[in-house]
Design a protein that fits this description.
Nucleotidyltransferase, domain 5; five-stranded mixed beta sheet; Udp-n-acetylmuramoylalanyl-d-glutamate--2,6- Diaminopimelate Ligase, Chain: A, domain 1; single chain
Length: 444
């Protein structure tokens, strides 16, 4: 039996339409609250069709996993039928069956969908982002596609692609996206600090370590975990391990880094000695040539990899090791894109991808069909803004017709600079400017 749930008067009218069309296999599930009716339907029925906002469905099911029951969510305008959960058990087939009855479009929210306008699975993947709870991906993707208000927090300062206009700052949205290196906080008053938000872990943390000769990997691991935990930081956001050069090959440090999958970055002692830190010691200066290893290495590495860095966990000590954590501010990206000689079919795949990775595009060319929804497109008279926004950490593309040879060389550490060449104008006529290649003749 398919349970049908309505979240409003409009939803009830649509639900009754479905029940009338499929009287033998559907039943209307009702309760005092729509969320209670939905949970009851998930518990008792073989499949569920919910005429409710996607965010409301996701929120109702937090802490009440549907254990594989197919759940299809139909927005109240009946534009889309989202195969929200249990696709391998028939949710997408059910969404397809609903299409002729309700006049809606079936939509798959499976991770890896080819519609990169909506797919959030790869959001920030090129920057090293990971998803904290992939189970929330279908809920949030469907809410984005349905045009529902979706909150966005923590993405500023990262060179991320644009998201549709309904994703942004909203008052108490049912669903949201959060970019954070903070660990999850639990309390008795709600489902946790993350709530119903899709959380991305950015690679924003650098762990600095120092250790005496012969210190074991276990002691270092225990100290680093305690340092991260005390500061409320997520290990998933650690980008690398940093230390002084004379300790770079210390077996305990190497073994710990390999166990966690973190690369080790080492700096000369005289470089670290120039980094101001809150807890320098004469003992460290006498032993390795710098008054600080953990704090200085973390800070210097964060500032070298990003456009800035701050200490977020001061030095902690064990019997034979020290650890500290710094957070980096990521560098922005300015991509110079050559659009080729003007023909749409001669714009390269790399150029198209570069435009879709940007949240700001500066160009006088028509590119509305080449950028993601929500991308800000400005004319070249705003060229100065391109550099300003790249310095602030934004993903910017500067696009012009041609092969990109018009770009002036820029040397800067303030942001990452990339160039995506376009096809030259001559290439358009190349097939006509040379003799054709003919197969060999038998009588030759």
């Amino acid at each position: 039996m398919i349970g049908v749930v309505a979240g409003s008067a409009g939803g009830r009218s649509a639900a009754e339409t479905l029940v009338a069309a499929w009287p033998e296999e559907t039943r209307l599930v009702e309760a005092g609250r729509a969320a209670d009716a939905l949970r009851d339907a998930v518990a008792r029925c073989a499949a569920v069709v919910a005429f409710m906002p996607v965010g409301a469905v996701a929120q109702a099911l937090v802490g009440h996993p549907p254990t594989g029951v197919p759940v299809v969510c139909v927005d109240e305008s009946m534009r889309f039928a989202f195969a929200l959960l249990g696709e391998h058990r028939g949710a997408y087939r059910l969404a397809h069956r609903l299409a002729p009855v309700l006049g809606c479009v079936p939509v798959s929210t499976a991770t890896g969908t080819e519609n990169d306008t909506v797919s959030l699975a790869g959001y920030g993947a090129d920057l090293g982002f990971t998803v904290h709870d992939p189970a929330l991906l279908p809920h949030v993707e469907a809410a984005v596609l349905a045009g529902e208000p979706v909150g966005l927090e923590g993405a500023d300062g990262w060179p991320l692609p644009a998201l549709p206009p309904n994703v942004g700052t909203h008052d108490a949205p049912a669903t949201g996206i959060l970019v954070t290196d903070r660990a999850a906080l639990e309390c008795m008053c709600h489902e946790g600090w993350f709530g119903n938000r899709l959380v991305y872990r950015p690679p924003s943390l650098v762990v600095g370590v120092g250790a005496c000769a012969g210190t074991g990997a276990g002691e270092i691991a225990k100290l680093v975990d305690a340092t991260l935990s005390a500061a409320g930081l997520a290990p998933e956001s650690v980008r690398c391990l940093a230390t002084v050069e004379v300790k770079a090959d210390e077996p305990g440090i190497r073994a710990f880094a390999e166990e966690r999958g973190w690369r080790v970055i080492a700096h000369p002692a005289d470089v670290l000695a120039r980094v101001p830190v809150p807890n320098p010691t004469d003992a460290a200066r006498a032993g390795v040539g710098t008054p600080s290893v953990a704090e200085a290495a973390a800070l210097w590495t964060a500032r070298s990899l990003g456009r800035g860095g701050e200490l977020v966990a001061e030095k902690r000590k064990s019997a034979h090791a020290t650890a500290a954590v710094a957070r980096l501010a990521p560098k922005g990206r300015l991509t110079v894109v050559g659009l080729g000689p003007g023909d749409r079919d001669l714009i390269t795949a790399r150029a198209r991808a570069a435009l879709r990775r940007a949240s700001l595009v500066i160009t006088d060319a028509p590119v509305a069909d080449l950028v993601r929804p929500g991308t800000l497109v400005l004319p070249e008279e705003a060229l100065d803004l391109a550099f300003e926004e790249a310095v602030r950490g934004r993903a910017v593309a500067l696009a012009r017709p041609g092969d990109g040879s018009w770009a002036t060389a820029v040397s800067t550490d303030a942001f990452l600079l990339e160039k995506v060449p376009g096809i030259t104008g001559d290439a358009r006529f190349a097939p006509h400017s040379c003799d054709p290649v003919l197969p060999p003749r038998d009588d030759a």
